[in-house]
Design a protein that fits this description.
single chain, Immunoglobulin-like, disordered N terminus, seven-stranded mixed beta sheet, about 450 residues, about 15% helix, alpha+beta
Length: about 450
């Protein structure tokens, strides 16, 4: 519910930025950050703001400006009880009514006192240009991760897509606190408080479903607010004591088990996000039916993207046999997906535009690959086929750097193989897609254009 509220925000920033006022000390376990939220795709422009605080009663409120109005909203919360970590609350407040793409100034109040303020950017609609970043395999707690995060802030994106393995090594509450939020949501690195991030599940996020072995694990299901429009809920089979399972279900709420498969629209693009961990068998007719229905329904989108953690095509020696997501390639091609974004392999790779045409096959004969080698991403910028990107250079240890300058070790479909910490920055303006691969020092490592 919303009501008019007195709101005076001393912001001079008109774009994505953090406020100059520091949050009140000791109020938060994790300071507020933005997500796209779980509400349906009904044309209302929304943002969700989440934060973590001790499990204690307080009167919380979010005040914000939307479309020229001063509004306020009251958050909901779930209590997370995991292992020996003190119970804490994950608050979730939906802000809506924005004009497309406007600066979204918001303040968080506790017991009548302002304790946080920041400025984000409301989601954009089909007629507006936009920018997004893609990277994954990031939450390792390394200096390279921090340097790359600072470059991400400098890019001023509209949103960030994180293609799995968000925290190492067990997807735990502890690791979010040590390896994730300190790198993406601080006054020095204000990415998440200013930009909605989309989190995807990798093997290090939800691949260890034993609460007996990892009592604070599976935190992916606690800390994100994303669409709940996926297929019949499927996810890891979580094990543990009765008390552990009960606490986990309460903390995860509707995010478990189905919260890792979903789709959303942004601007003139449609995104389909899949949980590619092996407990989800994408040969399953129910899962394939949902995927096909979602892709078919996106026919009006100018740009179609599919994103998941495990790449169906890559050239690294590491993880070479993790090809099980080739089982969805036939649907990707049938519905003319432009780019598939993946992680898992800790480097950057780009394929030629490809047609494979055979679903369900883990091993596809290279004679069957139709590669558009005439596409150069510059002058020849209208690809015949889907481009597959590996964006796993977000902060974890780089894989197989010895292959970077050895094209003879690459698979025939690979045209770029770069072993430097980096992310992809994509600008879309109508029918034009411009991608740049940005290193932790700001250098451009690769670029390509798609024109429709």
């Amino acid at each position: 519910m919303k009501r008019p509220a007195q709101l005076l925000l001393s912001f001079l920033l008109a774009a994505i930025c953090v406020s100059n006022n520091a949050p009140a000390a000791g109020v938060f376990i994790e300071e507020p950050y933005l997500n796209i939220g779980s509400a349906p795709n009904d044309g209302v422009i929304r943002l969700a703001v989440l934060w973590h605080a001790p499990d204690a009663e307080a009167n919380w409120e979010v005040r914000y400006r939307a479309n020229g109005h001063s509004l306020s909203a009251t958050p909901t919360y779930r209590v997370v009880e995991a292992g020996t970590i003190p119970a804490h609350r994950v608050y979730n407040c939906l802000m809506e009514g924005f004009a497309p793409g406007e600066a979204a100034a918001y303040e968080v109040y506790k017991d009548g006192q302002r304790v946080f303020q920041a400025v984000g950017r409301a989601p954009k609609v089909t007629s507006q240009p936009f920018k997004f970043l893609v990277f994954g395999d990031c939450g390792r707690g390394r200096p390279d991760q921090k340097a790359l995060a600072k470059q991400a802030v400098a890019e001023k994106p509209d949103f960030v897509a994180l293609v799995g393995d968000l925290v190492y090594t067990h997807g735990s509450v502890n690791e979010y606190r040590s390896n994730f939020f300190p790198y993406y949501n601080t006054s020095d690195i204000p990415l998440m408080r200013s930009v909605p991030c989309i989190g995807m599940s990798g093997n290090h996020d939800t691949g260890n479903p034993s609460l007996s072995s990892y009592p604070t694990g599976l935190a992916f299901y606690y800390y994100w607010s994303q669409p709940l429009n996926g297929p019949t809920p499927m996810g890891p089979r979580v094990s543990g004591s009765g008390a552990q399972l009960d606490a986990f279900r309460k903390g995860a709420g509707p995010n478990y088990p189905g919260g890792a498969n979903f789709s959303f629209d942004y601007g003139n693009s449609h995104w389909t996000v899949l949980d590619s961990n092996p407990y989800n068998n994408w040969k399953n007719p129910e899962l394939r039916a949902w995927l096909e229905s979602d892709l078919k329904a996106s026919s009006s989108a100018t740009w179609k993207f599919v994103a998941f953690h495990h790449p169906p095509f890559h050239s690294s020696h590491a993880h070479q046999m993790d090809r099980f997501m080739r089982s969805v390639v036939d649907l990707i091609e049938k519905y003319h997906v432009d780019v598939v974004w993946c992680g898992h392999v800790h480097n950057y790779q780009r394929s030629f535009p490809m047609h494979v045409g055979k679903g369900f096959l883990t091993n596809v004969n290279t004679d069957d690959w139709q590669l558009d080698r005439s596409y150069d991403g510059k002058g020849a910028n209208r690809p015949n086929g889907t481009i597959y990107i590996v964006d796993g250079a977000g902060g974890a240890e780089i894989y197989n750097p010895e292959q970077e300058n050895d094209p003879s070790s690459w698979q025939p479909f690979t045209t770029r193989y770069i072993c430097k910490y980096s992310f992809t920055s994509v600008s879309i303006n109508g029918n034009r897609f411009t991608a740049r691969q940005i290193a932790k020092d700001g250098r451009e490592l690769d670029s390509f254009i798609i024109q429709k």
